[in-house]
Amino acid sequence: MKLILTEEQQFLKDTAQSFARDKTPVTHFRELRDKENSQCWDESVWKEMVELGWSGILVPEQFGGSEFGMAGISVIMQELGKTLTPSPILSTSVLGVSAINMLGSDEQKENYLPKIVAGELTTALAIDEGNHHDPFAIDTTAVLDGDKWVLNGKKVFVVDGASADSILLVARTSGKSGESNGISVFVANKDSAGLDITKISTADSRNYANIEMSELKLDQNALLGEKGLAGETLEKILDLGRIAISAEMLGNTEEAFEVTVNYLKERKQFGVQIGSFQALQHRAAKMFCEIELTKSAVIAAMHAADENSNELERLSSLAKFQAGETLHLVSNEAIQMHGGIGVTDEYDIGFYLKRARVAEQIFGTSEFHQARYADISGF
Amino acid sequence: MEYLEQFREEVRNWLEENCPPSMRTPLVPEEEVWGGRNAEYVNPESKLWLERMGEKGWTAPNLPKEYGGGGLDRDQTKVLHQELFRIKARPALNSFGIWMLAPCIIEFGSEEQKREHLPKIIKGEIRWCQGYSEPGSGSDLASLSTKAEDMGDHYLVNGQKVWTSYADKADWIFALVRTGPKEPKHNGISFLLIDMTTEGVSTKPISLISGKSPFCETFFDNVKAPKENLVGVENSGWTIAKKLLQHERNFISNFGLAGGGTGSGADVVNIAKKYLGETNGQIANSAHRENITLHKMKEHAFGLTLQRSGDEGAKASAASSMFKYYGTEHNKDRYELMIAAMGNKGLGWTNEGFSDDEQAITKAWLRTKANSIEGGTSEVQLNVISRRVLDLPN
Asked: Across the interface, do B307 and A296 touch by the CB < 8 Å criterion?
């Protein structure tokens, strides 16, 4: 495994870079926030991403996708992360596509994947139920009653839950909370009776929802794959999501750092550029090192996913951990080094801090992944 | 790719025939090979192993064949290392000559110097040491004051060097000397090769907080060095000095990886399990386990970064400062975690109450403190990153 990009991946990255710079600079995000746009992303921007083929990067060719893999979608997310571009790419093109492709029957794939590729369907993965990410702590129940599945339970902090056309619901068909066995995944239309979706308002001004299922009745073909056996695959789907958001977080970090270093070169105090102060220089140099480590962890994880490496779990946890730690550090230092203007709403740097803390939580904090890494490694 | 597989086959066969059996067993410190005129071989097979590898040029696989090197390309060198690693072969030769001096002679040396010095370095016949730091010139290396006066056919060298590793065992020294006392400090330095047997050269060992050390003080008292031993142009030695420091930093940055550099080779997880005990196969104490996990994750990411840098084929420069800084700080951290995990067993000094392995870790812990000082302090590396990579103002 070489830790570099192929020509194809570099091309995708370059395309995404121009896209983010030209179509969705940070002012785009600011406008969405100020408009209180309820879904927090822009339909026309998503349509353009779909036209570039980004919705189908993980979709097999037979269903209209390009199969450019996790490396392909990760470099796109990294570039979008630089300008805080909101879109349903993570919830739909990574999580939705992977869940349907890895769990679903041929018929289900035929039913959903081409629609996702065409931009006609967006999805959201509803998994967490508590204050912290904990994939198998599932109390939501699904019981077969005649020819219908009946679901009851609550989901929280569902990424893009407030806009998705279909919700992928993780429920328990047997066993008890904490067990991997007995986990099943269902697809439900957002308008289903018994499905109550409530948008929540978060610091990063993006799209999340709490979802309640009360006697939600679904047809038998709403079940993706076999009853009770989704646990292991779900971990893999989450790992792909973790890698993708780590790439986005790397992009957040790179941009926040670049903006900050540029500020150190411009801002003058005591008659000199503040970047000439060693107290700031050394902190900047240390951040540079952590960013380099993050790049390596992310690229290793995305290639591991594409090569079906048995190191995927460890590398995905390493990537999410390292991306989280580095973004945490850089987002804090960025504010401090900007001084007063860093804490004003008028200046963009604060957006990176708010986005950082939310992204750090999604699919497991650094603490979660540290514990997971230790367990996998046998420490 | 086919030629590489063929090369691998050749290497495998050659190693099978030529790597002596005892050279495939774990290295014991007394049998480490540094070569040189006065080398003593505790194990005769180490001598044989050096001769065979030296003959092939595989002690310096990527140096040109015409000067005694292996003449291998990047991929072939990688294959050679993989095959050596596969049979757990000991290093045939440790050499400052190969790690630091040879790349500079290749780049800056005259044809005569290449022919004279490179084959002897590669075969391990001549052992080199590095004369850089002085008592008054540490991080501010360019302020060095050892002077070399032009006496026509030779330089007359007077002054003192410090931290010259293995100066008491080395045959030659590559030294920075001041040839231009009136020039601005960076512009009056030359890079000079000096035979340690020349009259007026003397050495004195230095003891460290970790006990005995390979470091020495080296004194030059009216030493005559022939002019043909000047590398490059007079008064432009600083350029060579900086280049050489990069090679040194690249080498030291491997310290960041478990098993690399000045250490005992002990694994922090195994140590923790042994001295803190295990609960269901896990390090029994959760606070230690957390600290060690953080350390191992950073090490993993750092190792991937070294690998990525190799894959990108990035030239050593600012990157070497990052690796030097991160690797050495990480190595210090490793030994702090190790002695912490060992409790009172990590604090022994002699064998009254402590095993050899335990003492080795205690000594290694103290030795690592110098890692972030030697070859440019961590603070100097951070300066280099700030200025050269981030382009922050002076």
From this structure: yes
Q: Which of B300, B302, B393 has the CB atom closest to A276's CB atom?
A: B393
Tell me how far apart the alpha carbons of residues A176 and A343 are, in angstroms, rounded to a whole number. Answer: 46
Cross-chain residue pair A296–B305, CB shorter than 8 Å: yes
Domain finish residue from A229, A257, A288? A229
- Report the alpha-carbon distance of residue B69 to residue A238 in Å, rounded: 50
Q: Are residues A249 and A372 in the same domain?
A: yes
Co-location of A246 and A282 in the same domain? yes
Q: What does each of the 379 residues of chain A score in pLDDT, given as a tens digit? A: 899 999 999 999 999 999 999 999 999 999 999 986 778 999 999 999 999 999 999 999 999 999 999 999 999 999 999 999 999 999 999 999 999 999 999 999 999 999 999 999 999 999 999 999 999 999 999 999 999 999 999 999 999 999 999 999 999 999 999 999 999 999 999 999 999 999 999 999 999 999 999 999 999 999 999 999 999 999 999 999 999 999 999 999 999 999 999 999 999 999 999 999 999 999 999 999 999 999 999 999 999 999 999 999 999 999 999 999 999 999 999 999 999 999 999 999 999 999 999 999 999 999 999 999 999 999 9
Mutate to test the interface with B, among A296, A312, A313, A330 (most CBs of B within 10 A): A296
Cβ contact, residue pair B393, A292, below 8 Å: no
* Tokens, residue B178: 């001041």
- Give the total number of structural domains in chain A: 3
Shared-domain flag, residues A215 and A130: yes
When CB atoms are compared, the residue of B292, B304, B381 closest to A379 is B292
Q: What's the ipTM?
A: 0.95
Can you give the CATH number for the domain in which A202 is found? 2.40.110.10
**Count of pairs with CB atoms under 8 A, one residue in A, one in B:** 108
pTM, two decimals, is 0.89
Task: Output the domain CATH number for residue A23.
Answer: 1.10.540.10
B128-235: CATH architecture: Beta Barrel (2.40)
Cross-chain residue pair A293–B304, CB shorter than 8 Å: yes
State the CATH number of the domain containing residue A244.
1.20.140.10
Q: What is the DSSP track for A216-277?
A: EEEEGGGEESSTTB-HHHHHHHHHHHHHHHHHHHHHHHHHHHHHHHHHHHH-EETTEEGGG-
Pair type for strands A123-126 and A166-172: parallel
Of A2, A276, A289, the CB nearest to B392: A276
Distance of CA B308 to the CA centre of its chain: 22
Q: Name every residue in B having a CB less than 8 A away from some CB of A.
A: 269, 281-283, 289-290, 292-294, 296-298, 300-302, 304-305, 307-308, 311-312, 322, 325-326, 379, 381-383, 385-387, 389-394
Give the position of tokens 């068909």.
Answer: A173
Q: Please check whether residue A1 lies inside any domain of the structure.
A: no
B2-94+118-122: CATH, from 1.10.540, 2.60.120, 1.10.101, 3.40.50: 1.10.540
